[in-house]
Amino acid sequence: MKKSIIVALLLFGVFAQAQNKKWTLKECVQYALENNISIKQSELNIETAEIEMLTAKGNFIPSLSAGAGVSENTGLSFNPVTNNAQTTTFLSASGNINVGYTLFDGLRNVRSLQRAKISKLASQYNLDKMKDDISLFVANGYLAVILNKANLEVLKSQNEVTKEQIKRTQELVDAGSLPRGDLLEIKATDASEQQSIINAENSIQISLISLAQLLLIKDYENFDIEDEGYDIVDDGVAGRDISEIIASAKENRSEIKIAQQNVELAEMDLKIAKGANLPTLSAFFGYNTRYTNTPSFIQRLDPNNPTITEQIGTVEGTGQAVIGEFPNTFPVEVGADSFTDQLYQNDGIGYGLNLNIPILNGFNIKGNVQRNKINLERSKFQLEQAELDLESTVYQAYVDAKGALKSYEAAELALESQQLAYNYAKERYDVGLTNAFDFSQSKLRYDNAKIELNRTKYDYIFKLKVLELFFGIPATELKF
């Protein structure tokens, strides 16, 4: 009984721990990379590219095929062994083995294998880009939850101050030191803050649900994140020159690598299309045999009268008969040879070379070559555009990060000023030198300054990480 209670308590503890689990950003990113549907689809594209590579390698292997057949014929049919017409019922079987090998096809097999390798590499770059994008989406959603939680803490902390002010104001009103209107003003501020707290709690829940949906986690009620230990961590990327960041992005970003691979694919497609203008040389070898169970007839010598004489002609001029002696035979029906014997007796082989020279095909090859030339030029333009887009995007990210830093620094200064103003207003209110409305306005500006500081802080963190990602730092190695 005691053992059962202990086991139950342990299970309850494990369950409670699982329910109270708080996800870190690293765990969220890793979970998204392992479970996101778009990433899984990109991984399937890599598997498809591997199959294409296997097929391209198979073109270098000789083709081998074997066939066999069995049939029963009734009536007038041709014997497959003797090739004579017979009116009977017989069983026949045949088999064959054929081998073919392409000796030369304008290097299209070689180009196809090279193309398959490039295609696999392009699929890998697409997967890397997808992982970077998903990691940024998760980080942005994660920071949004942290921001909402930080804002809620600000609102709760300030509301506690408001409640203390209500108690103190109530005492002063009861003592006749302050008018009742000041108490009503403070209570109105408390009600407004309570509403803001409720809205902040809703914002947290909504942002948590959005993050859980991005991670494909269905247990929304118990999903929560670790909201401590995240601060501004700058590895020095923000201090680098913009030209250095752009150069690193062009070297490391998947967008450029994908565009470069597309150019190589187009070049390979053009070479494959041109290869169709060259002759194709192939070799073949075939082996076949057959069997039938139909009986056959042989000529047997008559032992009692082994020879016969017959006139075979006359001598011209004299008319003398010319007599010839021939074996005296008669037909005898014999059964079919064994299956094994017939396989050897009736077999045959064939081998040779096939040469195919393209001469005129309605301009299909020429048209295909021209289309691939156009595709090559288009892919080169797309590479050039990708470089320009990346340069513009990186420059924008650089400007955004610099601007976010300035906003954060300005928010820190604003908070310091608002805190001094709030402290001054509080001192004046405590001694009755200012009314409740002016004090509430000062407190509201102080609260808003704290919330603005939180917003600019996490906005700068995210934009800084975007810049680091462009610089070439992997998404899983970003520091917060």
TrEMBL record:
It comes from the Bacteria. InterPro entries: OMP_efflux, TolC-like. Residues 1-18 form the signal peptide. The keyword rRNA-binding does not apply. Its main location: membrane. SUPFAM superfamilies: Outer membrane efflux proteins (OEP). Pfam families: OEP. It is found in: Cell outer membrane. Keywords: Cell outer membrane, Membrane, Signal, Transmembrane, Transmembrane beta strand, Transport. Belongs to the outer membrane factor (OMF) (TC 1.B.17) family. This is TolC family protein. It comes from Winogradskyella echinorum. The lineage of its organism: Bacteria, Pseudomonadati, Bacteroidota, Flavobacteriia, Flavobacteriales.
